[in-house]
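Quick check before the chapter quiz. The format below is the same one you will see on the exam, so make sure you can read both the input and the output lines.
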Amino acid sequence: MGFPLYLIVDPRQQTATLFSEPNHDRYHTRTEREFGGTISVPDPFGFELDLARLVPYKD
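Here is the expected output.
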């Protein structure tokens, strides 16, 4: 589909996974961080996402 970035936030596992550098049918870079840290979102957006502000899912 040509999406430059694909971000998955999993409040149950308290993780965020960012896929980047797409090429044909897959992403070449995978970055995973736990809630409480930060994850760098590269250009074309170019910012740091503060995962400490996310709320985990509670059963």
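If your answer matched, good. The mean pLDDT is 92.
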